[in-house]
Amino acid sequence: MLSLFVGLSALPVKATTNSGKISGVVVDPGGTPQMGATVLVSSERIFGEAPAELLTNDRGRFSTETLAPGMYSVKVTLAGFLPAMEQHVQVSNQHTTLLEVMLGSVFSTFDKLRRQPNQELPADEWSWVLRSSAATRPVLRWQDGDIVFDQPPGQQWDVAPQHVAHRRMELTSGSDHPGSVSNFADSPGTAFAYDLTIGEHSKLVMAGQFSYESASPAGGFVTEWIPSGRLGEGPVTSVVVRESHLGPNGPIFRGLQLSHDSQLALGERVNIRYGAEYLVAGFAGTTSSLRPRAEMAVKLAPGWVASLTVASRPWQDGSASQNEMLAALNDLDGFPTLLVRNGRPVLDGDVHEEFAVEHFWGPSASLTAAIFHDRSNHSAVFGLGGVSGPDYLQDFFSDVFAYDAGASSSSGLRVAYRQRIGGGVDTTFVYDYAGALAPMETLSADASIRDQLITRYRQSLAARASTTIPHFRTKFIASYKWISGSVVSRQDAFGEGMYHVDPFLSMEIRQPLPGIFSGHMEAVADVGNLLAQGYVPLATGDGRVVLVPSYRYFRGGLNLQF
User: Fold this and answer.
1) Cβ atoms of 391 and 402 closer than 8 Å
2) C-alpha–C-alpha distance, residues 384 and 399, integer Å
3) Least crowded by CB within 10 Å, which of 218, 255, 428, 479?
4) pLDDT tens by residue, 105-150
5) Does the structure show a pLDDT above 90 at 543?
6) What is the separation of C-alpha 270 from the centre of its chain, rounded to a whole number of angstroms?
7) Prediction pTM value
């Protein structure tokens, strides 16, 4: 593994082709281009590139170098005019975003203020015009909902239409969180998502899921409001509601999750993300939890970023493999594990504190070192066995039970290396030294499971690779996490969620299928702990059980985007 790591590190880094530009013109209220205006273009991403400072030429024009896709803010200043600010300017792959910025003056502002409310607006005030010079005809006009190209006489432009999927439907069987009554049931189910664009960039994403088991329905609904249009580039507000009937005459689980995240920039080097989630769960009683989170990132130097994080779970950031609809479905299946303690419901939850330093080698490689601390009042473990009692919550849809192992606390060290190799292969390597719950050396058959577990420090090494097979367009993802000793709980669960690695061998295959009608259809197969490793037998006063740090599961089906 070490030889493979060194070999991959020596490979050349291939420059990304996913880039665009921002080009535009700066004019005064009369439409005259302004030369010498200062244009500051800054990314709205928390780890975005350093701001670019430009000057307009003698025709009032400016143009950036290549920019990574995402949302940007453009600030324009010029002596004698009021500063102008354009936010949430979207840059797409291999495209140039055209922009006109009008600098206002104090007199033009007064003119707008004294205009009568019922005064009819001139025809040119509901559109803005980008001109190649003051004397030529417009080449681009923007209206609400449409972009209209005005072609000069005798010139033809080929504008390739781009279809963006706004609806998603999944027909699947199985669950990737078996054993938890608060997540998707381990049975056939149907999920849907709808992405509704509101205004120029804002999105309202709605998703739902229901499982059909004999006399035991389960389902949920989630709504996400994303004003910036992309995850990780502005505020996000979500509401998740779940309900599961555990048997025809059994109890009913109900859960509600309210979440809000936002971010702000302090100068050019400091970015802060903050938010909180409020959880309420009902199951033979009611329990609630308020979980704030925050992250501060500081750019130390070009290519160097330090961050301080306090959170219970990683943030969801947009990427090519995780759009807003898929993120909403993940939120729907991301409710914390419900446990019972002395017959009362409690929620599993960790408080993760981390300090990390990350170094980037271009857009395709990075190395991160972090020290962290985890603590929890209710640590979830899963097991198999014929036991019963007030502390065992049996999953109705599988043969797994969830158990509250009590309070736990540990510190750790993590080193992660990520690199994109030529040919579209993304690789991740993660080394961890951290604590996890494990059986004591001297066991007592009369003691409970909780009394026989102790925090032990283990080493682990994880590797993950993803690629798309040419011609067949098959998406293949595989990961493996080796742990130096037996454990019954997750080791560095925050890091596993951030780098998308699970204990032992996991694989995911996505195969596009020929389209019967307009849309994108693919078959999905997702397997966890394929080799059934890490099972720990344990004899307790309640009976003999097998504890499972990562339960083996299979989830497959079809999904359709259109």
Assistant:
1) no
2) 7
3) 428
4) 655 544 444 444 444 444 433 333 333 333 333 333 333 333 333 4
5) no
6) 21
7) 0.70
